[in-house]
Model the fold of this input.
Amino acid sequence: MPNRTLLIAGNWKMNNDVAEAAKLADELAQALPEVPAGVEVLVCPPTIDITTVHDRIQAAPIALGAQNVYWEAKGAFTGESSCDMLKSAGCTYCIIGHSERRDYFHESDEDQNKKAKALVAGGIVPVFCCGEPLEVREAGTYVEHVVAQVKAGLEGLELASADQLVVAYEPIWAIGTGMTATADDAQEVCHAVREALVELFGAEMADGIRVLYGGSAKPGNIAELVAKPDVDGALVGGASLKAADFSEMVVKAAE
Ligand code: PGA
Done:
């Protein structure tokens, strides 16, 4: 078994104004003065909060990520942030391809491909999300669906090392619904994702790339999820908004 460091990543989504973000970041820094061996911790606040959160968690072993990026370097792209801008604000990770971006903002696989390439070239690790809606799960074609997203989104990406990419499998029916996939469901698809990564990047590289599960991950289920061989952590929405829950997940993941 390869020795992949688990990643517990918080996706705050569109929650917390600057004052609230400062408070949560302080609570996290206090709750996680150190993290257990074998676990890495990441928080991804809204863009407006990134600088504040950076200042508050600087001394803590918590990495900082964004929730979105635009692939161009600069210019007339109102409302967007470039990879270099995120980096200058302290980000080392960036979520891309979240189902909410794909659904509400009509982002395509092609968009994710451009974002992934811009991030890797610019030295930020993409947390590339994929996952099927309920009707695809019910039709039984979820593995094909997710594998197609991974291949289209990451095709042609050039990696020098496995730590330049993270993939997060998030079944849409499990996001924010309290309906967690079982650990076996998560393992089945995370394993298929890894096989797709083997095709894209070769076996050795794929072996080192972290594949997370996301969708109602919480303190009560994190241990059984990360016990699965292809589940290397979690992308956490709701439970990342409470410092006590999120830090408990970090501790439980390590046990
Ligand atoms: P959830 O969200 O943990 O609230 O289900 C996960 C995500 O969308 O990343």
